[in-house]
Design a protein that fits this description.
ARF like GTPase 10; alpha/beta; nucleotide-binding; GTP-binding; 3-stranded parallel β-sheet; Rossmann fold; 114 residues; P-loop_NTPase
Length: 114
Amino acid sequence: YVSVGGSQNLRFYWNQYLSQAHVLVFVVDSADRPHLPAARQELHWLLAEDPRLPLVVLANKQDKSDALSVAELHRELALHTLNEQREFFLLPTSATHAALATATSIRHVKSLLV
């Protein structure tokens, strides 16, 4: 398990870890609409590097009233364009203290993956 941040200065390192990955876990802020086009572009760039790598997209901040739904994120991230051989999951998550006891808790999802 390796977590590599998404800030611009860390993206240089993504490729180094991607070649050894068994699954790509991509966390997106469901309430950050202005940055979704950039998130979509980065996600599809990563996916092009390894067409068979399974994908888990965590639609974070689902607790926010302005968060996009999973269906809206599916469309905004253009997940319908993925090739049919790629396994992928799009899961709603929340990292708030109140959500820790729920199935959408980011901690719960992490325990399923690690």
